UniProtKB/TrEMBL annotation:
Residues 243-271 are annotated as: Disordered. It comes from Paractinoplanes lichenicola. Gene3D superfamilies: P-loop containing nucleotide triphosphate hydrolases (3.40.50.300). Pfam families: ABC_tran. This is ABC transporter ATP-binding protein. GO terms for molecular function: ATP binding.
Length: 271
């Protein structure tokens, strides 16, 4: 997919929010879009998603299925979370079971009967994420995905990104706080002064580590993740050890992509 001389502004005589943007995303790539508040990251992502249209230039070769997770999930809709996700699955031509798999994986099971407007911000964000993933997107767009998410859900983001890219999908992620600057293998773009430029990747952390698997009570998972992070440990993932075993790439515990991610760890000889 590429931005081909893209110019965009929100009103006819307004300053350009983005000027002459030329940039390309290849299959399997993750792009982290960095920039200060108001720089134009969301605008760029919405142009990529096709939600906004450029006044000049074009976004070309966009994959047919796009999953867009806006910065704020629009929760003012008259559905419960479960009903909404099942409807979205049906609308996209999928079995409602596809929604159930994401409901389970994003730990939304206890919220399916809650109306969207009554969900907490973080839970609503997870519904937004599930909605985008049900479609099995070839392009996944995550606008500040860390905002409002609980600690467990945060650990799932890199895992989900790896699964999409492992199957040739592209991922665009905005990040104004530099939280995902360490997303492995990601390419960084910087948005500033209405232009988009390649940004150097932050230095990789020194690696002399081992992986320890621990099991904690489900109710204590959030607290455990927060405490481990506070102690300086990298939390690589959270998975359900009692749930059904998955059998396809976007399913809970997705075997192919998950193994591919684990393989990259093994190949570094750290286990
Ligand atoms: N719907 C809109 N109408 C008019 N101006 C807008 C609109 N949306 C965004 N803008 C303006 O466009 C500029 C870029 O906004 P954008 O949301 O793309 O920035 P951002 O880098 O994503 O910021 P943040 O990190 O705060 O989300 C800002 O000056 C913003 O005020």
């Amino acid at each position: 997919m590429r931005f081909d001389g893209v110019w965009f502004r929100y009103a006819r005589r307004a300053d350009w929010t983005l000027r002459a943007v030329d940039a390309a995303v290849e299959p399997g790539q993750t792009i982290v879009v960095l920039g200060r508040n108001g720089a134009g990251k969301s605008t760029l992502l919405q142009l990529a998603a096709g939600v906004l249209r450029p006044q000049r230039g074009a976004v070309r070769e966009r994959p047919p299925v796009v999953g867009w997770v806006p910065e704020r999930f629009p929760a003012d809709q008259p559905f419960t979370a479960g009903d909404y996700l099942h409807r979205m699955a049906a609308l996209r031509g999928h079995d409602p079971g596809q929604a159930d798999e994401w409901i389970e994986r994003l730990l939304l099971t206890g919220h399916t009967g809650t109306r969207l407007s009554d969900l907490s911000k973080g839970t609503a964000q997870k519904v937004g994420l599930a909605q985008a993933l049900i479609a099995r997107p070839g392009l996944l767009i995550l606008d500040e995905p860390w905002e409002g998410l609980d600690a467990v859900a945060r650990t799932l983001i890199p895992e989900i990104v790896a699964e999409v890219t492992a199957t040739g999908g592209m991922v665009l992620v905005s990040d104004h706080r530099g939280e995902i600057a360490q997303l492995p293998g990601a390419i960084h773009w910087s948005v500033a002064d209405a232009t988009v430029a390649a940004a150097p990747a932050p230095p990789a952390p020194a690696r002399d580590e081992v992986v320890i698997e621990i099991a904690v009570a489900r109710a204590a998972a959030d607290e455990a993740v927060v405490r481990l992070r506070a102690q300086g440990h990298a939390v690589l993932g959270v998975r359900d050890v009692t749930g059904p075993r998955p059998d396809a790439r976007y399913h809970p515990g997705a075997t192919n992509a998950r193994n591919a991610a684990a393989g990259s760890w093994n190949s570094e000889g750290e286990q």
